[in-house]
Amino acid sequence: MKKTTMTLSINFWNEKITDELKNEFMQAVTFEANSMNIQMVDEQIEKLEKKISNEKDTYSKEEVAAFKVQLQASEDFRKKLEDEDVTLYETYNKVVNAMSQKNKDGFGNKKDVVRTILRVLATWNNSKLTKYAIIPAFSSPALYEALETIHVTSKAGDDGNIIMSKEVKEAYKQASQELETIIKTTFSLPFETEYTAKTRVKMTAEDKKLLNEVYVSNFKDKWDADEEKGTISFKSRSYTTLVRATKDKKTNEMRYDYSKLGSTISKIVIRHYFK
Question: Three-class SS of residue 42?
Fold first, then answer.
């Protein structure tokens, strides 16, 4: 991967920033882009290694051979990314440390937030990376519960509209408040740095509407087949949402994967960083 020669037209550059400092900032963005790509490649390598092991004899010899070629290409790409990050590491550290430095009163931008913003900016030309953008791993049980109440457990009117019950109204309010908190604590810089001005991202009503619109992406019906009676009957309907909930078969505990929800919020937020 070549070093970027382009500068992002973000709306929170420090007014006195020099071209040299802009270049350092962009190198930090490239470093985080490489790091996210490495995470993605690591997942690809893990999947390919499982296919190559072919424990269940699922694949032919030709398919396994093709997987080995793909694995080598992935490993080569990973090495290339790592090599470039070695050359960028010193500058990257300088930028992150400067942007998270504490002032005389002991306050400053959080390092995780600085890294998250660099990562979100790095996804401008590769939306596949958004799932890795938020540091640390994103989770929001309160937002999940509110969105489930609005879009999954709510009742519909005769025209297909959501009935605005007391619970749904409260859920909309809760979702809005939770989003504002997430944006404030995860995507905003309260302190100026030599690279950036203060920036407070504010989600618009349209942003919140968009998140609600894409929360449910699909659905699946389940059926019961009674062989004795020779009948098939409808059992239940489940929804594919931005939060994946699974039950541990051994402990019966529910586990939640918030990566798609975090990724979607990142996609919505990024435009607010630009002019």
Answer: helix
Write out the residue range of the structural domain in which residue 209 sits.
19-273
Residue 192 is classified by DSSP as: -
Q: What is the pTM of this model?
A: 0.87
> How far is residue 236's CA from residue 256's CA, in Å, rounded to a whole number?
21
109: helix, coil or strand? coil
The closest of 35, 25, 38, 39 to 96, measured between CA atoms, is 25
Q: How far apart are alpha carbons 220 and 239 in whole angstroms? A: 6
Among 275, 80, 264, 85, which Cα is nearest to 179's? 264
Side chain identity at residue 240, one-letter code = T
Task: Write out the two tokens for 105.
Answer: 């009163």
- Residue 5: pLDDT above 70? no
What's the structural domain count of the chain? 1
pLDDT at position 1 over 80: no
- Distance CA(265)–CA(138), nearest Å, equals 10
In the 3-class helix/strand/coil scheme, how is 188-243 assigned residue by residue?
A: CECCCCCCECCECCCCCHHHHHHHHHHCEEEEEEEEEEECCCCEEEEEEEEEEECC
**Type of residue at 216:** V
Q: Does the residue 130 lie in any domain?
A: yes
What is the per-residue pLDDT across 12-26, written as a single tens digit (0 to 9) for each?
Answer: 999 999 999 999 999
First to last CA, the chain: 27
Backbone φ, ψ for residue 53 (5° rounding) = -65, -30
On whether residue 168 sits in a domain, the answer given is: yes
Q: How far apart are CA 193 and CA 228, in angstroms?
A: 73
